[in-house]
């Protein structure tokens, strides 16, 4: 069984934030795979389909790794079967990249996961663009998408659905340059 983790912050205040693209993608996948809610324990919302577990940590971004570790340990999931979907400011809006392992790139959700389970898991990086100045990063990722930006990004979700079925080939087959 594979564990698909969407990174984001809980609550309606953050729902359409750039930092919550992982939650939005997992919400799409939950519907597409007809997943049912298992639990709100594990410091997150956990759903299950025939082939996947889907997790939306409710710890806030900076502590996401706690939730991932609890599910990983309970279900005895190997890191090779964990796929984390997250925003990436180093990629152009709408760009899509897949990789296994690597650094956090300053992403606090990834830092937390790395600290809890190591960094040898799969990542689905969704480009949300970058603000003009470095000091604007926090306010930028916590700002809402414009409607047209969100439309562009939602077009990536079917591609992500196909890529998670074939994650080992995803870097060469499913990457996208942007909107």
How would you portray this structure in words?
- The protein is of the alpha/beta class and 179 residues long.
- It has one domain: Rossmann fold (3-Layer(aba) Sandwich), CATH 3.40.50.1470.
- It is built from 7 helices and 8 strands.
- It has helices at 21-32, 64-75, 108-117, 137-141, 147-154, 157-165, 170-173, and strands spanning 2-6, 36-39, 44-48, 52-57, 82-88, 95-100, 122-127, 176-177.
- An 8-stranded mixed sheet has the order 2-3-4-1-5-7-6-8, sandwiched between helices.
- Strand 3 and strand 4 (52-57) form a beta hairpin.
- Helix 1 packs across helix 6 and helix 2 packs parallel to helix 3.
- The termini are far apart.
- 40% of the residues are buried.
- Belongs to the PTH family.
Helix content: 25-40%
Q: Give the class from helix and strand content and strand pairing.
A: alpha/beta
- Supply the number of structural domains: 1
Q: CATH class, please?
A: Alpha Beta
Unreliable residue stretches: none
Report the β-strand fraction as a percent range.
15-25%
Rg, rounded, reads: 15 Å
CATH arch. level architecture: 3-Layer(aba) Sandwich
- Morphology call: globular
The pLDDT mean sits at 95
CATH superfamily: Peptidyl-tRNA hydrolase
Question: Main beta sheet: strand number and arrangement?
Answer: 8 strands, mixed
Summed up, the helix count is 7
């Amino acid at each position: 069984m594979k564990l698909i983790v969407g990174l984001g912050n809980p609550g309606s205040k953050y729902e359409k934030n750039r930092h919550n693209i992982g939650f939005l993608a997992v919400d799409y996948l939950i519907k597409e795979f007809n997943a049912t809610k298992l639990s709100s324990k594990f410091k997150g919302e956990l759903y299950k389909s025939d082939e996947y577990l889907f997790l939306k940590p409710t710890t806030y971004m900076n502590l996401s790794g706690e939730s991932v570790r609890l599910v990983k340990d309970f279900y005895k999931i190997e890191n090779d079967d964990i796929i984390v979907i997250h925003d990436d400011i180093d990629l152009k809006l709408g760009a899509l990249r897949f990789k296994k392992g690597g650094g956090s790139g300053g992403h606090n959700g990834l830092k937390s996961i790395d600290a809890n389970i190591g960094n040898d898991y799969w990542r689905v990086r969704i480009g949300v663009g970058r603000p003009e100045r470095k000091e604007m990063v926090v306010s930028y990722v916590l700002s809402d998408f414009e409607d047209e930006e969100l439309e562009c990004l939602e077009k990536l979700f079917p591609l992500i659905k196909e890529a998670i079925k074939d994650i080992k080939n995803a870097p060469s087959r499913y990457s996208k340059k942007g909107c």
